[in-house]
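Ligand: NDP. Inputs:
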Amino acid sequence: MNVTNKVKIGVAGLGTVGAGVLKIINTHSELLRARTGTTLEITAVSGRNQNKDRGVSLEGLTWYDNAVDLAKDPDVDVVLELIGGSEGVAKDLCVTALSMEKHVVTANKALLAIHGTELAELAEKHNVSLAYEAAVAGGIPIVKALREGLAGNAISRVYGILNGTCNYILTEMEETGGEFGSILQDAQKLGYAEADPSFDVDGVDTAHKLAILTSLAFGTPVDFNSVYIEGIRNVTAADIAAAEEFGYRIKLLGVSRRTAEGIEQRVHPCMVCTDTAIANVSNVFNAVVADGDFVDSTVYVGRGAGEGPTASAVVADIVDIAMDRRCPTFGVPIKEMTPLPTASIENHVGCYYVCLTVYDRPGVIADVSAVFRDEDISIESLLQRGRSESEAVSVVLVTHEAQEAAVARALSKIENFAHSVATPRMIRIVSL
Ligand code: NDP
Ligand code: HSE
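Predicted complex:
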């Protein structure tokens, strides 16, 4: 691609992110020219509905009903894939563009989590960039930080709040006591949620992003299938209140860690101490912490979703391409990627918050304690909510460090008690 005078850009997908990119390039055309020494020009676009008002003019741009045709346009040097989905048109578009030796910029973490390694291989084969800063943590330049800024370090752990929608929901539930469903609708209206918001609330979107971060951090092929995933659907207002009483806040975290057993990748609600940096990252903000052997711990915070922040990351990738700044897609060339074993969540050791719903009968607490004793789990504190002979009450407890498998066995035994009314629930407590 000749990038000396003009970079000709085709934008496929004109929703929250795509329209945002057009707005930035229109607003900052002169700034971007000064920074890159070239003109960034949108030449072609693709969407489903040509007549939709997108709050930005499409005048003079070539329209494609079929996004894959946009990649074939000789007047397009760089293809932006801003449609979404791990299969179908998004993937076809990227494969076509890369095979035609066109650079690709995408915000599509689902695509990269599932097909990232094969697409990186294709980009490498055709000597073009596959750039995806917007795919992880919205406006935070975490891909650049891990791949370039921390290149002198062996990374031991990377974790964070990676989903703006979930963080928004948890913050609103905590601050307003609002109901999950209506808060999710607000997040959708604000352009934070995925086309299928179950990807957000069930932890899948966080897992997509975590799989990408893991590959960047540890030089492994992207391995989404090894991520343990739990979402926030089962987090209740009562859990949030109990967390506060114990000195914690609930956050959906993605954690990737090098252990003696292998790489641990897990996504689940966590209780984090209220005085930690991550506990105080609220609303749509994301935070990523990366621990390197020489740099120590580094923290990155910013808006994780929405038009402006996400489009900002896409434009940063376009600028890199315009300036011919190139890196292997996941930090190392494909031949240097090394698969590592997966550490099982069952061997995870930590403290746990447990919530039981039981009949308030004499001996219940003794039975519960006996189960924990038999599994060699020590209880740090225990609270009973309410007092009723005939109705169920909540018993919440916090354990000392225990092994996940032992906690799972204990909860399964308690569920089978005659005085147990609902499936016991637990939230992992993380020390950061
Ligand atoms: P939207 O749903 O707002 O936009 C999707 C766009 O894709 C729409 O313009 C739609 O067209 C277009 N589209 C759908 N199907 C086709 C098709 N077959 N051919 C051409 N165009 C098509 O999604 P977002 O902008 O929110 O997300 C886009 C991508 O960015 C996704 O991968 C998402 O995960 C990712 N992302 C989103 C973030 C956010 O905050 N929203 C943040 C980070 C990443 P039409 O408008 O005509 O219906
Ligand atoms: N749905 C995603 C989120 C968009 O809420 O974080 C940003 O990737």
